[in-house]
Write a structure and sequence with these properties.
It is a single chain. This protein is an alpha/beta fold. The chain is built from seven helices and eleven strands. The protein has a seven-stranded mixed β-sheet, with helices on both faces. Strands 5-6 form a two-stranded antiparallel sheet. A two-stranded parallel ribbon has the order 8-9. Strand 5 and strand 6 form a beta hairpin. Helix 1 packs parallel to helix 2. The radius of gyration is 16 Å and the shape is globular. Pfam families: PHP (PF02811). This is PHP domain-containing protein. It comes from Rarispira pelagica.
């Protein structure tokens, strides 16, 4: 069965913590440079830059999985991955409706830049995207699954915005996998399939952490089956 190299946690210039150099062209260039077959764009609480990246990925022969990194009521981060942009944008709408709305101050918290496929700036997102939503971890997981997506808690063993940092434990929810920061993790992963991603905020960080999956096709459904059947390989850091 074919094996594909994946990094399913990348931020663009829309995330306030993402560097302004994380525009579509640089993301694709560094994904190609690192021989990635599949990437996911997972900006904080938003999927609005996905459409700008999609045509460049198609041209480069890279599969782009539309997604978001959602901040729950408990301030746990969770990756939400979807088969289509339309589904991701529906989740974006749910996040917007539930976001704790703090006006963004670019000078203090960073720019939140919206771009088109030519990497032209089309606007700035008005609300601070690192705010939490009013959705609990359980509710977020359910909303993702209602839209046919994959729910994967981010960097569960990191000291901030993770299940262990915020809850003190990894709950037994209907997660499709868990993302670890350290590999092997010293914490209990409770038998969930483990993946490892870069959480890149700068171009040079893309693929610094990644994993391999075995699937018939490098697409959303191939990823989903690989996670269910644990056809995933992570190597020790990096």
């Amino acid at each position: 069965m074919p094996r594909f190299k994946a990094d399913l946690h990348i931020h663009s210039c829309l995330s306030p913590c993402g560097d302004l150099s994380m525009g579509p062209f640089n993301i694709v260039e560094y994904a190609k440079k690192n021989a990635l077959d599949i990437i996911a764009l997972t900006d904080h609480n938003s999927a609005l830059n996905t459409a700008a990246l999609m045509p460049l990925c198609k041209k480069a022969g890279i599969t782009l999985i539309p997604g978001l990194e959602i901040c729950t009521q408990e301030e746990v981060h969770i990756l939400a991955l979807f088969p289509t942009i339309e589904k991701a944008l529906l989740m974006d709408k749910v996040c917007t409706e539930n976001l704790v709305k703090i006006p963004n101050n670019p000078e203090k918290t960073g720019d939140q830049i919206l771009v088109n496929k030519k990497e032209e700036i089309t606007g700035e997102y008005p609300w601070y995207l690192l705010s939490s939503t009013n959705l609990s971890l359980k509710e977020t997981t359910e909303e993702i699954h209602k839209l046919g997506g994959l729910a994967i808690p981010s960097h569960i063993d990191r000291p901030t915005f993770s299940c262990y940092s915020q809850l003190g434990f990894l709950p037994e929810e209907d997660f499709d996998a868990v993302e670890v920061y350290n590999n092997p993790s010293q914490l209990d992963t409770k038998g969930y399939t483990i993946i490892k991603n870069s959480d890149a905020h700068f171009p040079e960080d893309i693929a610094r952490r990644h994993f391999f999956l075995e699937a018939e096709q490098p697409d959303f459904y191939g990823i989903k089956e690989a996670l269910v059947k644990a056809r995933v390989t992570t190597y020790p850091f990096p």
